Amino acid sequence: MAQSPRVLAALDVGNHSVLALIGDLGPKDELVIRGVGLAPSAGVRNGQVVQMQPAVQAIRAAVEEAELMAKVPLERVQAAVAGTFVSGRFTRATVTLGVREREVTTRDLEQLHDAARRQPLPQGHTVLNVLTHAYMLDDQEGLLDPTEFVGRQLAVDAYVLACQESPVRALEKAINAAGLEVEEFIFSPVAAALSTLTEDERRLGAILVDIGYGNTTYAVFASERLLAAGCFPVGANKINDDIVHCFQTTAVGAEKAKREAGTVLLTDVGAEETISVPTIDARASHVIPRLELCKVARLRMQEILELVAADVLRQIPPDVSFTGLVLSGGGAHLEGLTALAEEVFVMRARLGELEGIEDATGLLQSSEVPSRAPAVAAGLLAYGRRAVVAGGALGLPRRRSRPGLFSRIARKVMSKREVAGDHV
After folding, report:
1. Which of 8, 143, 251, 296 is the S-S candidate for 384 at Cβ 3.0 to 4.6 Å?
2. Which domains does the chain have, with CATH numbers?
3. Where are the alpha helices (DSSP H) in 248-366?
């Protein structure tokens, strides 16, 4: 049975875990999550697939769990991309309608969108997403949809996200090998913003910072426009590495200590407090000062936030104002992080909760899924909903060549054979 257009699927292949979500649209086009699949990530480093088969198996495990819960077989997914290989810039594309004035047609918009995609890029790079800002028709600016307006010259301002082609192609190959077709790749912080920022925040200005396990990404919005986006190859795992080196413990012990005793509010920690962590060989344990562990966590998190703040300051005009900062991602669980973010950015900060998305499974609030980690995957579903309900009003969908019926069937058959082979 073909996947209904009103059944949406999202896949976030992270450095720590793979999260698959399945949702559908209700009678009033409300988005409801029906299936959740979570699997430990494998074969992925800094957002890139570095081992194909482990990555395929992790994707397959997460997707099959979500399919079983939602009782829906998947064919297509929206997928997230995150890595330093993605970069953004502004562009303006223009097409001439003719010597005489005439109405703007859908074909004119398609030609304009094609012109926006024709970017001078280095060899081996491709356009990932093109997010429209506003259309202009002759001297009339700020048009949201110029169709049926009359004029001679049509233009669009857009923010173009380009990327190295190889990492995205490798991720797509892994998803295909798991039996799925990628409808579109979306830059992770753009997706996270769709599920966590309110309409007022996107309109009046907000900075979304998604702190993952291996990467920290950000997206800056104002006047419903994406103004900047980027990625740094540091995330919550760097805190674990620091704890391992400073206190000679294991990676598992560092993660547990960070989650159970970590805070960036140093004034809340007594000088006499201690915690027990495993030794580096995991054969015994030793006691360390909790305050020293929290200092390590604070220094690393402050460095990450300062990197983002400096990059945002470099790109954003000084006259742009913001209502605040929103933190998402599994690394945003650290106690007191909003207070630290307010110190660094000198603006109000809050933790990102899912906006306008109903979770019928109840699993996204469970202890199995790290708090705020589903923001990217939920945003992918929100993006898919916009494409169905509003015709993809966020931006210009990436043109993709659709495989034929035979290739889709063959891919499904090969996926099932591999699954059967894994259980022999």
Report:
1. 8
2. 86-164 (3.30.1490.110), 203-352 (3.30.420.40)
3. 251-261, 290-315, 337-345
- Which is it for the CA torsion 57, 59, 62, 66, positive or negative? negative
In terms of Cβ atoms closer than 10 Å to its own Cβ (0-12, 13-18, 19+), residue 125 is middle
In whole angstroms, how far apart are CA 145 and each of 89, 105, 156, 161? 22, 11, 11, 22
Report, in angstroms and rounded to the nearest whole number, the Rg of the chain calculated over CA atoms: 23
pLDDT digit string, tens, across residues 88-135? 999 999 999 998 999 999 999 999 988 988 888 999 999 999 987 789
Q: 248-277: b or e for each residue (b if 16 or more CB lie within 10 Å)? A: ebbeebbbbbbeebbbbeeeebeeeeebeb
Token pair in block for residue 141 = 């600016």
Interatomic CA distance for residues 15 and 330, integer angstroms: 11
Tokens of 130: 């093109």
Integer Cα distance of 152 and 102 in angstroms: 7
